[in-house]
Amino acid sequence: FALISYSLSDYGIFDKIGTMLILKLLALYGTGALTGHISLLKDEQDRMATEVEQLRTENLQSQYAALAGQINPHFFFNSLSGISSLVRSGDNKRTLEYIDELSDVFRYTLQSSDKGMVPLSDELDFAEAFRYVLEVRYAGKLTFDIQIDNQHKTQYMLPVLTLLPVIENVIVHNCIDSAHTMTVTIDTNEHGELVVSNPVYPKQQPPMTNGTGLKNLANRLELMSGRKLRVESNEERFTVYVPLKG
Fold it and tell me: How far apart are CA 145 and CA 196, in angstroms?
């Protein structure tokens, strides 16, 4: 275009046609540059989205692995003590039930890395098995009051192993004995949240914990559902609101 424009200038028509050709050249060049830049930006955006998704997946997998391993040091030896106590009591039926429930707890945690979102019913079944083992450990002074109908159990979804850190938080921060019988209430509300509430019985000595259990759960929930974990606490009750996916 530029060569043609300068050639035409010898005939005195550069101002009319030559200028138009140069403007077209500049327009084509600008359009091409803009299109190329947009294409590069699109490729970069796709690459970054892939990396973010990969990091998100790796982060979730590492958190699942941490949660699955978390139950071992806190729980394993106490579980063995529970079996030993039941064997000494001679209650063979209850011993077998205890072992069955304990097997369900460990099986669920070991398989958690292969799962993402699970039905609420799966988490409640895990909580029931966990409750049975804990009730033996606390001689029946820790109970769960689950007030959820069957429709909501199958309707709602949530990340696997959601209830583990919530239950662990109750045990770690509260005194549970004959003078402080603990009843954990589990229900749903009209906002599509799982509501886990317990009375507050502070221990005389503050627990040695860094509070990562609920923090990790909050991060997982926000990554997977885009909604936030809510906690309400006063001197009488501690309540955790877990967002559910319908």
Answer: 10
At a CB cut-off of 8 Å and minimum separation 6, what does 159 contact? Answer: 116, 117, 118, 220, 221, 224, 225
Euclidean distance between CA atoms 163 and 4, whole angstroms: 77
pTM, whole model, 2 decimals? 0.69
- How many Å apart are CA 40 and CA 51, to the nearest integer? 17
Per-residue pLDDT tens digits for 166-203: 998 998 899 999 999 999 999 999 999 999 999 999 99
Sequence-distant contacts of 232-238: CB under 8 A, at least 24 apart: 233/200, 234/200, 235/200, 236/199, 236/200, 237/197, 237/198, 237/199, 237/200, 238/170, 238/173, 238/197, 238/198, 238/199, 238/200
